[in-house]
Amino acid sequence: MEYGFLSVIPPIVAIILALKTKQVYIALLFGIWFSWLIIKGWNLLDGTLGMIEGMVNVFQSEGNTRTIMFSALVGALLIFIQYSRGVEGFINILNRRLVKLEEKKTGYSRVMVQVLATVTGLLLFVETSISSLTVGTLYRPIFDKLGIPREKLAYIADSSSAPSSILIPFNAWGAFIMGLLLTQGIEKPFAVMIASIKYNFYPLIAIAMVFIVIFSKKDFGPMKKAEKRTKETGELMNPDSTPMVSDAVTSFPPKEGIPAKAYNMIVPLLVMVCMMPINLMYTGWSAVKESTSFLNHASQAIGEGSGSSSVLYAVITSLLVAMVMYFIQGIMKPKEAIELTLKGISELMPLALLMLLAFAIGDACKELETGIYVANATKEWLSPELLPAVVFIISSFIAFSTGTSWGTFAIMLAISVPMATIHGADITIVVAATLGGGIFGDHCSPISDTSIISSMASASDHIDHVKTQLPYALVGGAITTIMYLIIGFMG
Question: Which of UniProt's keywords are assigned here (predicted)?
Answer without folding.
Answer: Cell membrane, Membrane, Transmembrane, Transmembrane helix
